[in-house]
């Protein structure tokens, strides 16, 4: 999977590249408007992470250009401009998603995974991880043919974990993924603990006890089959 | 008293003083002119009488005869010659025509007739002339009065016309709000004073607006510029979490850093929202069902409610459509609910009541009424504040209510019960 990261902040570029490469994405970087424009026209990407405020131009103009060229790239806008108008304009211009800064890297990874999945939809949309099989469309999951009965929230949590396999996901990232903006107003993570506990219990019931590891109460790591 | 009324009154006072004094002065001037005319006439008559004495009169009987024909000429024989200079004076005399005493102007002169001294008296009645004088003064008074009234009316009318630009400026200033988007349009005027006033005012207002706006923009830009460093902070923390061989102690530090970053994120987002609410006057509105919004927000917070071990009571009207910006309503409802959850006590209660006119969110909490002046103030902190909050939730509620034309009220309906009510429209 090939990604184009359009971003002008060097410290952020290295972080994004480092994290996403760890999720087995091939990352290319464009840090100016002109650079991004050139790369977008010359190559095809599975997903473009697009910052809106760029040296040399507005990211929304790049979107317009993509639309004119009828390039079928997936686009996620990652912007510090959290204005509703920008969001609406961006989505109207063909962006697939809008992720306001600052976001958690696991959240970005989940969004990229969801976008890539949608674009490479081949009828089944199954995710395989060790013995775990997840059907994203049917919203069902099973471990070694044994079905898991998950609530909506637990299923969303599982998707976040799947998109960040082998990584430590901060509980704040999980809270935000599950409850959106409201999460940042609470400084307790009772709901995160409860959901992870329930998911763990259900996984244990079907013999996948060690899929989710707790990391010092700071977050969780999803590593199917690591112990095997 | 209005400026116009004041100038009119002062003008009126001055005009009546001039009118009264003017009438007297005019009367005396006319009188003087008239008397000197009468005196000249009477003196000319004396010359004619002297000529007659020399040429036509023969005997003293003629003198008496003349007097019988003309009562206004009379001769009195004197023993010795009188004073040589003529005397003119006013006197009263019986008038046969009117049968009353009348004022006369009389000239007395010493004359000689056939060598004997006589005193000649020539008179002229002032009756008609006094009437004339009265008429003249009356006419004068009427003209003066008409002039006065006319001037007053003209002054009033002109003042209104002349001051019109001033009143327009005043009206524009009264309608002016510091946070309005459009610059103030003051009327153009050909009068230099008004033009100068308007120019000065426009400059002052523009400067104020610029300062106000730059402050607002500063808050927004500051919050905005914070997003990127925060993003880097978050990303680096996410990467640090992945470091192999992370110890428990290090994880503890990271946990605190993540929590602080989260709070900073919330703070900057709240500031951005407030800044936008402050300077964006118009938010596109649509008809939104408050009931649906409340239910959606409650669904989102379901888990926080149960995590805090709170009981939820709802009493929602069937459908409450109102005109509002959808995003703002979401934030409003969400902030009210989150506030009720955050400041609750374990095992407490959150009660949401929606009527077609108002939304009330009530929660259990401290057994003491809160200071509602402080409640909606930005960053207001008191001893009861729950740690971890940024102190902007209710400030945002208040600002959204102001933007949307709602009223938000705090009440303390029962011991340990706090209620916030938003009245629509």
From TrEMBL, chain A:
The keyword Nucleotide-binding does not apply. The keyword Transport does not apply. Residues 124-224 bind DNA. GO terms for molecular function: phosphorelay response regulator activity; transcription cis-regulatory region binding. GO terms for cellular component: cytosol; protein-DNA complex. Keywords: DNA-binding, Phosphoprotein, Transcription, Transcription regulation, Two-component regulatory system. The modification 4-aspartylphosphate is found at residue 51. InterPro entries: CheY-like_superfamily (IPR011006), OmpR/PhoB-type_DNA-bd (IPR001867), Sig_transdc_resp-reg_receiver (IPR001789), WalR-like (IPR039420), WH-like_DNA-bd_sf (IPR036388). Residues 2-116 form the Response regulatory domain. Gene3D superfamilies: 3.40.50.2300, 6.10.250.690, Winged helix-like DNA-binding domain superfamily/Winged helix DNA-binding domain. GO terms for biological process: regulation of DNA-templated transcription. Residues 124-224 form the OmpR/PhoB-type domain. PANTHER family: REGULATOR OF RPOS. This is Response regulator transcription factor.
Automatic annotation (TrEMBL), chain B:
Keywords: Kinase, Membrane, Phosphoprotein, Transferase, Transmembrane, Transmembrane helix. The chain crosses the membrane at residues 9-30, 132-154. Its EC number is 2.7.13.3. It holds the Pfam family HATPase_c. InterPro entries: HATPase_C_sf, HATPase_dom, His_kinase_dom, HisK_dim/P_dom, HisK_dim/P_sf, TCS_sensor_his_kinase. GO terms for molecular function: phosphorelay sensor kinase activity. It catalyses: ATP + protein L-histidine = ADP + protein N-phospho-L-histidine. Residues 221-425 form the Histidine kinase domain. GO terms for cellular component: plasma membrane. This is histidine kinase. It comes from Hymenobacter persicinus.
